[in-house]
Each structure stands twice: as structure tokens, then as C-alpha cells.
Amino acid sequence: MSEQIRRQMDRLIEQIEYHRVRYYNEHNPEISDAEYDALERELKALEAANPKLVRPDSPSFRVGGGVAKDHPQKEHATPMLSLENSYNSADLADYFERCVAEVGDETLRYSAELKIDGVSLSLVYLNGSLDSAVTRGDGRVGEEVTLNAKTIRDLPLRVAAWKDIDRMEVRGEVYIDRDDFAQINEKRAAAGLPLFANPRNSAAGSMRLLDSREAAARHLRIFVFQALGPWAQTINSHIEALKQLKELGFTTNPHNTVIQNLAELERLIEDWSAKRPGLAYDTDGIVLKVDDTSFYETIGYTSKFPKWATAYKFPAEQATTQLKEITIQVGRTGVLTPVANFEPVALAGTTVSRATLHNFDEIQKKDIRVGDWVFIEKGGDIIPKVVKVIESKRDRNSTAYALPDQCPSCGSEPQRVPGQVALRCENLACPAQLERRIMHFASRNAMDIQGLGKERVQQMVEQKLVTDLVSIYQLDEEKLWQLERVGTKWIKNLLGEIEKSKTRPFARVLFAVGIPMIGEKVAELFVQRFPSYEALLAAEVEELADLHGIGEKVAASLHEHLRLPSYQETFRQFGSMGLQLVAEHKPPQEGDDALKGKTIVVTGTFNELSRKEITDLLKQRGAKVTSSVTSKTDFLVCGEKPGSKLAKAQSLEVTVVGEEWIAQWQNP
Ligand SMILES: NC(=O)c1ccc[n+]([C@@H]2O[C@H](COP(=O)([O-])OP(=O)(O)OC[C@H]3O[C@@H](n4cnc5c(N)ncnc54)[C@H](O)[C@@H]3O)[C@@H](O)[C@H]2O)c1
Ligand SMILES: [Zn+2]
After folding, report:
1. Model confidence over 175-195: pLDDT tens digits?
2. Do 187 and 171 share a domain, yes or no?
3. Number of domain units in the chain
4. At what angle do helices 2-20 and 33-49 cross, to 10 degrees?
5. d(CA 149, CA 89)
6. Which residues are listed for Zn(2+) binding in this entry (predicted)?
7. Ligand 2 centroid, distance to 359 Cα (angstroms)
8. Mean pLDDT across the chain, nearest whole number?
9. Does 49 lie in the same domain as 193?
């Protein structure tokens, strides 16, 4: 029996040692922290039940992962310990009881601090100047990384208001902001380097880089959380020490508070559980420390952590699991989104089995393959995401992911959206998109078919009364009677509306078919220059892009879509059903109000007309001419030397037109 337990302990220790090297030395873990902690807990439980079998070299007594030879080694004046972990109220209640019992005072105050998810660093200042920075290492001896520490953005290299102390040690947590971390991983993905699982691993790796210029590019930051040495010994409140550190120019975390009991802590935990996704940096818990430092020796230490402190750990947000399949969802706009389906795994209190992969570029960048073991993460989002692949666990025969060649809803070949990372199904009859397409087609500014509300459209699509845009014009009384709760009057009205929609001008038809990036105003601009479907189809992409107010991507989108079979077929059928595919050219009449409801800004200098003449002309046509560009502006008429209004209009995506656009509003 005991032989079996011994073997079990050996096996656990071997696993733990293996993962410590991956984590502490290589900064490239193969399992999540929660999974690692479970191994440690299992070992500790076995050790507690079998004290005779405990190995003297057990990781249960050790801090960190030892020291590598890359940097000079340096012994800590005071050991750098870890923190005891608490996962629930019972653990925390134990902590409060223990402190009160040791001190014999119920009114103890505790400093409650966010546990910053980074790596600890010891900084020694001699006569006010930073002398050395040392990592925790194995707690006793660490690695000297002073040059790297000097790249930490908010670390003072000299302490200004120095108070005659020749030696002072400050400890803190070095971390990387989430945004900076995302950029680091993006660069690594582009360079084909293994990704970091989280900001903490990348901070740890960065601190130990051999080239401090590279460390500087990692944008390291620090929150200091402790002072040691003669100066600190004169202050016997931890909170007060933090305050004075701040006055000396160190950055302390602004969210530290004082609490007195478990109830207050529980409120704090609840509060931060909600708020911490909004912080710029990762936190993994709340650290409690007895505020009165004169009790530290009384309460004492284990070989691994101080007993006057504990760390409540938030539920784990990362896990590792195996990717079984990549399925594809078709969004309402036709965009195909890959979804990771994996072995169900517990994560932050729920079981998850799916994660979004965002887009196909993401899969390629991270080289995610079916069968891979992956790190998944929940963070602040409801939907988990795949952080990275664990390459060391990849099957040798695995192959890179191939882009889908079929839309899962309709089977047609998806297209790459020009200039974007998305793949899109462009089939106008794709069932997954039909409802949205019809709603758009029938909307007020498009074909304006009243009576085609959301619910009705849903029913029609479900019952296959409409299967594409063309089939709207094939609806008849008999078909409509199949719907629930309809009457003669409603049917007659709807058919009337559909018939009436055939008279909508061509620009509206062009807008209504829902070509990506072709909005209402853009459709109008195109039709003014190319007044029929035939003319548009004959136009080269350069000619389309040549129009004032039209971007290259927009022109490319129109050009490409008009050539897709499903669009060509749709326009052909529209034509034979009597929809308007030719613009009726109405020269404007004196006093007509073609620009009614439009808000227009005029800027710059013009060749043919003065600014005043242009303004008057637009007003005659019913436009409201205003002086500043806002999101409500419909057009910016832009001459030469336009100034800041042009940039403003571009940033708000207001349509910009030139002097030639004015010509159409002049009387013949
Ligand atoms: N995934 C793996 O394979 C693997 C392997 C080994 C270790 N680990 C993980 O490493 C962790 C253990 O590392 P650890 O010993 O650094 O413990 P820890 O990170 O859980 O806690 C101790 C550390 O918290 C930091 N800290 C942050 N804010 C603080 C504050 N306000 N006051 C004081 N300290 C603060 C300090 O650096 C301190 O050293 C565990 O989470 C474990 O899961 C993971
Ligand atoms: Zn499709």
C-alpha cells in the first residue's frame, strides 16, 4: 500500500517538476495554472495523509523554479516567498482566525490589495539610486536583471526625496498591460514564434531577456507592494509604508483598501469580480496582509509563505483542452465565422466546449489545427477564446487548417472580402442570410414594401414562400394564405405594396440588393454617373473608383459583386419583372426640392462658381446648408484647399463630392 502511494507521489512530483520548468524557465506552460495547482494540491493532500513518505525535495516546500545561468546570481537579503492561496470562504475564515489567535486582538486591520498577475522583482536602492534588480528565483537566490529593470516605464531610477538611508529594498510586481501583451503576441505570431499564454508569462520571459533593448520593447510596468530595510522598519503600518513609497515616486496600485473581516472581504471580492475585466492589466486575486507589521514575526512564516498574508484567487480563467473540430457559422451578413469545438472543460465555474476563432486569419496566424491541444481563456467575455496552441503536444501528422470551400448553409463557394480578413457567402439565396436580406430589401429607404415586418419575413422564410429576393415578386394570394393569421385585406395590401415597389428608382434597387459597402448615398452617386444597370456593369473598376466620394474598396466591392452569378441572375430577373434598372433622368426644375432633407456643408474654393452661388443653388433645391461637419451631414461639397472639414468628413464617413457634382443641380 505505502509503496503504491510512494509511486503516486513520485509520479506527481515528476509531473510538477516538468511543468515548473516549462513555466518558470521557459515561460511556455503546457497546462493552465488551475491544472497545475490541482497537481500541487493532490501532492499536498497525499503528503498530509502520509507524513512519513514526504520527500525532502518535495516541491511543496519550494518557491519558484530555481535560477538559470544566464544572468549573475544574487542572494536576497530577505527571502522572497510566495503567498498561500485561498479559494473559498472557509480558507479565508481560517486565515482571519489564525491571525486573530496569534495576535490576540480582534480589531486587526488588513490591507486588501489586488493581486497583480505578473512576476515579483526585488529592487535595491543605494543612496537613493537603483543599484540592482533581482528576480525571485528560488526565493533565496535570484537572477540579477538590473538592465532589464531599467526599462520598466514607471520605476524611478533615482528616488528624489531621499531620507538619509543608504540602503533600501523595494519589492513589486512587474506586469504588462493587456493591450501591450496583445501586440507582443501579434508580433510573435507574425514572426512564427511561439505565443505567450498570458501577460504574466510574457512579463516573466521579458524580465529574463539577455538583451535589454528587447526588454524595452515589451513595455514593462511595475506596482510596488513592499519596502524592506532600516527605513521601512521605522514604519509599522503596511498601508502607511505604501503611502510613503508613493510619495517617494514609486507606483503603487491605486485600488488598495483596508478591511477588518470576512464580510468586508466578500463584498470586495464581489465588487472586483465584476470590475476587474475593465482594468488594463490582469489580476488573479486579492492579497490580504495584516496591516500592523510589528506582528509579522509573531504570526510567522512557513518555508514557502508568510502566515500573516494570504491570496484569495479568482476562479481560473484559463484551461487547456483538445480541439476536436472547427465548424463554421454563417452570420446574417454572410460572413463565415470559424468556431472551435473541443473536449468539454471546466472554466470559471462553467463547462465550455466551444470558442470563437474570430476569423480565418486568426487560425492561420496562430496555426490552429484540428487535434491540437490549446489554451482557452474566458476573461471578461462570455464566449471563450483560443489563446494559443501547445505546440509541444501537437500530433506529428497534423496538417494546417484549410479554408472552407463551401458555405455550410447553401454550399456555394465563399469569397474573400477585398481588403478584409473575412470570408463571405455571396449567394443572394443563402438560407442563413435570407431573412436579413429581405428585411433590408423591403426597408423604407430601399424598396419600401410595407407589411414585410420581421415576424412575417421569418414565417415566409420558414415556410419557403420566399427563397430569394426574386421570389418576393412571385408571391400571390394562394401562397400568402398559407401564413397564419392573415386576412384578405392584409394580403391585398401586401401584394399592392410589392407591385408599387417596382416603380422605385434604380438607385434604390441597387441599394436594396445589399452589396457590401454600397449604402444609400453611394448607390445614388454611382447611378448619377452610370444611370443604368448595363452602364454600371460595363464600367471598369477604375472608372467606378474615379467618382468623387467613392473609395477604392467600395468600387471594388461593387465591381466584383455585379459579376457574381447570383447577382447577375437576380438583376436579370428583376429586369424581366419590370423593376427599374435604368435611372429616369429628371433635369431639376426651378423650385423643386430634390435635396430636401439633406444636410450639406460647403468648403474650399471652386473654379466655376463661388461658394455663395453653390450654397444658394443647394438651398433652392431644398438642402439645409450648415457650416460644420457632423455625423448628420449628408454631403461635404469640397473644393480646393479644403482644410480640416475634409478630414472630419472622412473620419465620420460623410460622402465627399466635388464641384462637378453641383452641375446636376443647376438649371439647364
Ligand atoms: N501552468 C503551469 O504549468 C505552472 C507551473 C508552475 C507554477 N504555476 C503557477 O504559478 C503560481 C505560483 O507562483 P507564485 O509562487 O508566484 O505564487 P502566486 O503568483 O500565486 O503568488 C505569489 C506572488 O504574488 C505576487 N503578487 C501580486 N500582487 C501582490 C501584492 N499586492 N502583494 C504581494 N504579492 C503580490 C508576488 O509576486 C508574489 O510572489 C501559481 O498560480 C501556479 O499555478 C503554473
Ligand atoms: Zn451560403
Report:
1. 999 999 999 999 999 998 999
2. yes
3. 6
4. 150
5. 37
6. 407, 410, 425, 430
7. 16
8. 92
9. no
- Tell me, yes or no, whether 158 and 208 share the same domain: yes
Residue 83 labeled ligand binder:
yes
List the CATH number of the domain containing 145.
3.30.470.30
pLDDT, position 657:
86
Examine the domain organization and report whether 113 and 133 are in the same domain: yes
CB atoms within 10 A of CB 319: 22
State which ligand 1 atom lies nearest to the alpha carbon of 120.
Answer: 37
Residues designated as active site = 115
CATH number of the domain that residue 653 is part of: 3.40.50.10190
Ligand nearest to the Cα of 412, by number: 2
Centroid of ligand 1 to alpha carbon of 150 (angstroms): 23
Look at the chain and count its residues: 668
* Cα dihedral 484, 487, 492, 493 sign: negative
Q: Is 645 helix (H, G, I), strand (E, B) or coil?
A: helix
CA dihedral 198, 200, 201, 205 (to 10 degrees): 140
- Gap from CA of 250 to ligand 1 centroid (Å): 22
The segments of the chain whose pLDDT lies below 50 read: none
Nearest alpha carbon, ligand 1 atom 8: 33
Domain membership of residue 586 (yes or no) is no
User: Any known ligand binding at 99?
Assistant: no
Here the cell at position 7 is: 509511486
- Find all residues with CB under 8 Å of 86, minimum gap 6, and list them: 92, 94, 95, 310, 311, 312, 313
| Residue 407 among known ligand-binding residues | yes
Is 312 a known ligand-binding residue?
no
Per-residue model confidence as pLDDT tens digits over 319-367: 999 999 999 999 877 899 999 999 999 998 889 999 989 899 889 999 9
Residue 25 domain-assigned (yes or no) = yes
State which residues have CB under 5 angstroms from ligand 2, the bound ion.
407, 409-410, 425, 427, 430
Protein residue closest via CA to atom 7 of ligand 1: 20
Asked if 183 contacts 144 with a C-beta cutoff of 8 angstroms, the reply is no
What is this structure's pTM? 0.76
**Which residue range(s) make up the domain with 637?**
599-663
Which DSSP state fits 506?
H
> Domain containing 331 — which CATH number?
2.40.50.140
